[in-house]
Write a structure and sequence with these properties.
By secondary structure, the protein is of the alpha/beta class. It contains 11 helices and 21 strands. Pathway: Aromatic compound metabolism; phenylacetate degradation.
Length: about 400
C-alpha cells in the first residue's frame, strides 16, 4: 500500500518528536538519521516495535508527553507476563471516541439506537471505548459490562436494545439463551458489533440467524487506542480502517519485508496522531491482507481483510503447522457440525495425539460426522485426528474470549 504524503508528514513529525525526548524511541532509533528518511522505502527500514518492547517499558517507559498531559491509562487484556501500560492524553481519548463513532456510523447506528455494551470495563479498553463512541454519536448507552446473563437479557428486553456490542463467544451464549428461554419475540436487536477475537463464517451465520441481526466485525488493540480503528460495512467485504489516524503495512512474518497488495501477511501499525504513547511500526501478530479497489459502500477509507488468525496462534503437531482458521474453514464444509469446537493435544506413549471435540447440530449423525470430519482433517490439514462429536451446548461458553486449543504436551 502506497503511503500518502499526509501520512508521511505526520510520521516524520512523530519521529522528530520521539527522538528528542528521553524514552524508548530515542534509544530504539539511536544512530538513525531521522532527517534522511525521505521515502516510503526509507521508513520501512526502521526497526519494528513489538509487545516485548512494550513490556520492557513497563510501567510508563513509552510515555511521550509530560505527566500533567496524561489523563488515563489502559492495559492489555493478556493474563500472562508483565502488563502493557498505555497512557492517553485528553486528545487521545477524544480522537479514540471520534474513531469509534465512525465505526458506529459505518454500521448504520444512529442517535435513535440503544446500544447494550457487554465487554469489560476497567483497565481493558473495550467497554469504555464502546461507550465513548456511542455517546459521541449520540446513541443511548446501556453499559452492562460482562456477565450476569439473566440481567443482560432482562435489560435487553425492557430497554428494547437495538445494538449488541460483544465478543463473538458471548454473543453466541446470549443467542443460545434467548432461544432456550423462547424470548426471541421480546428482543429488538437489529445489529451486533463484534470484536476481540476472530470467528469463523459458520459461527457468524449462526449468531446472525439466532439473534436476527446484521453483524459487523470491529477491529482494534489496546496498544493502538483500543477497538474502533476499523470495522466492516454492510457489504461484509473486509474492514475499513481510518488511515488518517493509523498507517498500515503488511509484511512477511518471517522476513519482515512488505508483501504485495492482496497477499496475506502480518499487520504492522504506526500511529499518526497519538500523543501519550505513539507507536512506530508495531507488529500486531494479526494476519490479514490489503483489499484493493473501491468498496461498494462508497467509503473512501481503505480496507483490510477480516483477521485471518495470528502468527502466534499456530500449533505444530507431528511436524504440521495448524492454525485455528483452518479448522473453522474445514467445519464450515460439514453439514451437521456446529461452529463450536475444542482441540486437545496430548503426548502419549511417545506420540502426539490431537483430539477435536465438535458440537453436533440437533439430529446430526455422530458416526457420519466422525468419518467426514476425520477425512477432511487428514486430507486438508495433513494429520489424523481423533474426532469426538458432543451435544450442542456441551463445550464451555465464555463471556470474554473462548479458549479453543489446549496443548497439554508441555
Amino acid at each position: 500500500m502506497q503511503i500518502k504524503q499526509s501520512q508521511f508528514d505526520l510520521i516524520k513529525a512523530q519521529l522528530k518528536h520521539l527522538t528528542t525526548i528521553d524514552g524508548f524511541y530515542k534509544k530504539n532509533l539511536d544512530g538513525i538519521d531521522i532527517g534522511a528518511i525521505q521515502t516510503q522505502s526509507d521508513f520501512e527500514k526502521l526497526p519494528f516495535t513489538w509487545k516485548g518492547d512494550l513490556r520492557e517499558a513497563y510501567p510508563l517507559g513509552l510515555q511521550a508527553v509530560p505527566d500533567e498531559e496524561i489523563v488515563r491509562i489502559h492495559s492489555s487484556s493478556g493474563t500472562t507476563g508483565t502488563p502493557v501500560i498505555i497512557p492517553y492524553t485528553k486528545q487521545d481519548v477524544d480522537d479514540w471516541s471520534l474513531l469509534f463513532a465512525r465505526c458506529y456510523e459505518t454500521a448504520g447506528v444512529t442517535p435513535l439506537d440503544r446500544v447494550q455494551i457487554t465487554p469489560g470495563y476497567g483497565l481493558w479498553t473495550a467497554g469504555i471505548g464502546f461507550q465513548a463512541g456511542a455517546e459521541r454519536l449520540g446513541a443511548m448507552v446501556i453499559p452492562m459490562g460482562p456477565g450476569n446473563t439473566d440481567k443482560q437479557l432482562r435489560m435487553m428486553q425492557d430497554m428494547k436494545s437495538t445494538v449488541l456490542c460483544a465478543t463473538s463467544s458471548y454473543a453466541l451464549l446470549l443467542a443460545e439463551e434467548i432461544a432456550r428461554r423462547d424470548i426471541g419475540q421480546n428482543i429488538h436487536l437489529k445489529k451486533g458489533i463484534i470484536g476481540s477475537e476472530r470467528w469463523g463464517e459458520k459461527m457468524r451465520r449462526r449468531i446472525a440467524a439466532e439473534l436476527g441481526v446484521k453483524l459487523y466485525d470491529i477491529y482494534g488493540l489496546t496498544e493502538v487506542y483500543g477497538p474502533g480503528i476499523g470495522i466492516s460495512c454492510d457489504y461484509e467485504c473486509g474492514m475499513h480502517y481510518w488511515d488518517d489516524y493509523v498507517y498500515f503495512e503488511i509484511v512477511d512474518p518471517k522476513t519482515g519485508k512488505p508483501v504485495p497488495d492482496g497477499q496475506i501477511g502480518e499487520l504492522v501499525i504506526t500511529t499518526l496522531k497519538k500523543q501519550g504513547a505513539p507507536l512506530i511500526r508495531y507488529r500486531t501478530h494479526d494476519l490479514t491482507r490489503f483489499l484493493p479497489g473501491d468498496c461498494p459502500c462508497g467509503s473512501p477509507y481503505p480496507r483490510i481483510d477480516t483477521i485471518l488468525g495470528r502468527t502466534d496462534d499456530m500449533i505444530k503437531v507431528k511436524g504440521v503447522n495448524i492454525f485455528p482458521s483452518q479448522i473453522e474453514e474445514l467445519l464450515k464444509e460439514v453439514p451437521g457440525a456446529s461452529s463450536e469446537y475444542q482441540v486437545m493435544i496430548d503426548h502419549l506413549n511417545g506420540k502426539d495425539i490431537l483430539t477435536l471435540f465438535v458440537e453436533k447440530e440437533t439430529g446430526a449423525d455422530k458416526a457420519q460426522l466422525v468419518n467426514e470430519i476425520g477425512f477432511l482433517f487428514k486430507t486438508k490439514i495433513g494429520i489424523t485426528a481423533a474426532i469426538k462429536p458432543v451435544e450442542l451446548g456441551d463445550l464451555p461458553r465464555s463471556e470474554k474470549k473462548s479458549t479453543r486449543i489446549f496443548d497439554n504436551r508441555y
